[in-house]
Amino acid sequence: MIVDVRTYNIAPRKMKTYLALFEEFALPILRRHIGDPLGYFLVEHGPLHQVVHLWGYENLADLEKRRAMRDADPAWAEYLAKTDGLVASQDNKLCRPMEWSGIK
Question: What is the pTM of this model?
Fold first, then answer.
């Protein structure tokens, strides 16, 4: 398994709007093509205005296949247009859980 750890930096004072749009529009699309997130978090201490989410994939080919399906969904483009300007920047890391990790 690989875990895609994504950190989104949301424009100041836009977190509530971003989260509402994500839950209403993005989450159903992501669940349809990628599955449920392994975790979805708001940063409470440290850099402000951040959302961190974790997505699990069997391997890199699985990640690429699922992302391609998501990107081909017309509803995904609509969601991106609705959130234009809300995400200031983003970062992602592909990680491999250790054998003894809680995430397998």
Answer: 0.90
